[in-house]
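Incident review: delayed structure delivery

Summary: a single-chain prediction request sat in the queue longer than the usual turnaround. Root cause was a stuck worker, restarted by the on-call engineer. No data loss occurred. The affected request and its eventual output are reproduced below so the record is complete for anyone auditing the incident later.

Affected input:
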Amino acid sequence: MSERSASVLLEDMRDASARIARYVQGKDAADFLADEQCEDACVRNLEIIGEAASRLPEEFLSAHPEVDWRKIVGLRNRIVHGYFGVDFEIVWRIISVDLPSLRDFLDRLQSA
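Output delivered after worker restart:
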């Protein structure tokens, strides 16, 4: 279990997702795939999101089944342990399709 509280872990996730949004602002898939620094920065922040999610208490995860926590943690594990096989087209899809709903969820939690 993490020494960081759930609220701090969620803030870590919010911060990392906001960074990703800033990094890709105004970019399309082709721009993203042509920018190694942006790819690397986004992947690092996806790792942070996954690591923070992996440390959230089970009670919190169970209380929020609308988020696929297993996939978030699985992505982190895939990136960290299979770094040589990162598919940046999949990363772009995650950033452009899946991450906005996670950001919305995190924003709603903060507002509550």
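Verification: Residues 27-111 form one domain.
Action items: add queue-age alerting; document worker restart procedure.
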